[in-house]
Request: fold
Amino acid sequence: MVELEKHSEIVRNCKMGVVEIGILNGDTTKILAQANPAIPVYGIDPLIPDSMNPDLIGSEENIAKNMQGLKNFYFIKDFSYNVIKNWDKAFDYLLIDGSHIYEDVRKDFEDWFPKLAPGGLVSFHDSTMNRGGEPYWEGPSKCADELIYDPRVDLVGSVARLTIFRKKQ
Reply:
């Protein structure tokens, strides 16, 4: 899948760490952790029913299976808005794929963006519906569309359902 290849490319170039908000069972997280074993990968998820599909819910057992043997992965079972309150770890890639409700996506961005290293990348999954992507996921798409004009970031590009920005120096 082209998105996973893009994530891997990004993470191979990271120097500090990765924060992924919303990991479900850790399938993408595993790709991130494997792409660069020299940096920590933090996966944050409260493991509640998915905002797009209430039948989807991750499990600690599935996460543990997916991440078996990956010493650079750290799972945090909580809401991202709680975790950020005491966050003190450096990271240069932020992947937002938690709640797909606009207000939640925007809050994840506004909460975590100040902690992202200058020059770091932030990606929004499921965020291209208004730019040729699949016709759903209004929340992340609206947030990404707004950020195209935000002076704090530069649009790097879109790959499938992923929109990528670079934090200005």
In short: The longest strand covers residues 153-159. The two ends are 31 Å apart (CA to CA). The first helix runs from residue 2 to 12. Residues 2-118 form a domain with the Rossmann fold fold (CATH 3.40.50.150).
